[in-house]
Amino acid sequence: MLGKGPYTSEYKAEKIGTSSIKRYEYSHDITINNEELQRGGASYNWTNEAVKVTKEITKKENVAKVEISVLLFQAGNDTYVKPSGQNKFAEGAKDCKIIKIDNSRHEIYLEIDEIQKPYLKQVLDFYSKI
Fold it and tell me: Is the pTM of this model over 0.90?
């Protein structure tokens, strides 16, 4: 949420970035007990800069400069990020593969086992080939 404000330990389960409440609570507990990890929501300035850089990155002449292989995951139930910028990037990149995970929320790495395990396997397989 834009301009969310400073860190708060409160959360609403339906708005978190994963469908795994246990993994979220584990991560949340670590954050509560470590001030260095506590972050608030996106500020207006951060969001504005993110929009500007997305526009720059997705310009055809800039995407064409990306010469490395890119593996890009999209969470089908992501309420934080819209896929349009990712799709535009992938269309223009030389070697970009998108893997959409329909039942996942934003934080795929914290998802339930049925989502997280295949995701991690694909990430590790990708890195083992480069």
Answer: no
Q: What is the CATH number of the domain that holds 41?
A: 3.40.50.1820
Q: How many Å apart are CA 16 and CA 25, to the nearest integer?
A: 10
Selection from 107, 89, 79, 106 nearest residue 1 by Cα: 79
Tokens encoding 8: 């708060």
Name beta bridge partners: 98. Answer: 72
What range does the domain containing 32 cover? 21-128
Amino acid at 11: Y
pLDDT digit string, tens, across residues 95-104: 999 999 999 9
The Cα 100–Cα 75 span in angstroms is 6
